[in-house]
Specification:
- This protein has 10 helices and 12 strands.
- By secondary structure, the chain is an alpha/beta fold.
- The strands form 2 sheets. The chain has a 10-stranded mixed β-sheet, with helices on both faces.
- Strand 5, helix 5 and strand 6 form a beta-alpha-beta unit.
- Helix 8 crosses helix 9.
- It is globular, with a radius of gyration of 22 Å.
- The termini are far apart.
Length: 322
């Protein structure tokens, strides 16, 4: 062996040894499935995302996917797992099963799944209980896209004591399918209800409950032909009535160029907010990038409109402040 070849071989062996002896970086957190979280009457699956080194007692966000989606993909695409790392909270990611719904939609329209103590609503509540038991939780929030948005309103109505606030993205008011006579009429036309009738549906879901009720933020595309914008109007009517507020916005401005409104209760607290995403179709608003206000990944039903819904919700909920 020549001296040159020997030197080359020695250099290669030295480099290989250095690689082998260098400690591997700690693997980043990823969504993990949790089994045995309760009786699970709705036959859902539970996933969760817990950032590495998360202290006990941090906030919890329940984030529910839309039809044809899954828990992990929604958690990443929406930006919620990204924000969990940035701000320090955990995410519960319920997942529908095709045996319950062929399109993997949460059954926001089925009477047996939208009542306290029953079906999918009870399963999601059990997930929250398990998460708090395992990692603690100073406060809990709930959000979702489309069918997940419809189920968000379900959880706010049936388990109001569990959630500080909710965020409905392209979703529907509680009891809409029953009020309209069909989920499709609800989605495409809306239901004819007064604000008081909408509010009564929520109040009946948790009979005898005196509050406090979760506050609500709604994000809706104006060009959404799957869940028509009238559903945002109906959500506003429903939840302002629940909070004892009127249906006239107390503040109006623009955020990232989109109309934003706030509705306050008699005490001056903002109890409902809306973002009307001009020209957006059916999906989750995202704003991919590394900027401080950016989050999410563009894809199917994850629409880059230069506004990240998860960021706006987290900001309103105080997650950025800890």
């Amino acid at each position: 062996m020549t001296q040159t070849r020997a030197a080359t071989l020695l250099a290669v062996l030295t480099a290989l040894l250095a690689v082998l002896l260098t400690p591997s970086p700690a693997s980043a957190a990823s969504p993990q499935e949790v089994t045995g979280f309760g009786t699970n009457p709705g036959a859902l699956r539970m996933f969760r995302y817990v950032p590495d080194g998360l202290p006990a007692g941090r906030p919890v966000v329940v984030a529910m996917h839309g039809c044809t989606q899954n828990a992990s993909g929604y958690g990443t695409g929406s930006g919620w797992t990204q924000l969990a790392d940035r701000w320090g909270f955990s995410v519960v990611l319920p997942q529908q099963q095709s045996g319950n719904n062929a399109s993997n939609c949460f059954n926001w329209f089925q009477s047996g799944d939208i009542q306290r103590g029953q079906g999918e609503a009870a399963s999601i509540a059990q997930m929250v209980d398990r998460q708090i038991a395992d990692v603690g939780g100073s406060r809990v929030y709930v959000t979702g896209l489309s069918a997940g948005g419809g189920m968000t309103a379900v959880m706010m109505a049936t388990y109001p004591e569990m959630f500080a606030a909710g965020g409905v993205v392209a979703g529907l008011p509680y009891g809409c399918a029953q009020a309209a006579g069909s989920p499709y009429v609800c989605m495409y036309v809306g239901a004819t209800q007064t604000p008081d009738q909408w509010g009564d549906r929520v109040r009946a879901a948790r009979a005898g409950y005196g509050g406090p009720w979760p506050t609500l933020t709604v994000l809706q595309g104006t060009a959404d032909y799957t869940v028509k914008p009238v559903n945002m109007t109906d959500l506003v009517e429903q939840w302002t009535d629940v909070h004892g507020a009127d249906q006239v916005a107390d503040a109006s401005d623009t955020v990232a160029g989109y109309p934003h409104q706030a509705f306050r209760d008699p005490a001056g607290k903002t109890v409902v907010e809306t973002y009307s995403i001009t020209g957006m179709g059916h999906g989750q608003p995202v704003d991919p990038g590394a900027g401080s206000t950016q989050c999410g990944t563009a894809g199917a039903y994850s629409l880059d409109v230069n506004l990240c819904a998860a960021y706006r919700l987290g900001l309103a909920w105080g997650l950025s402040a800890g």
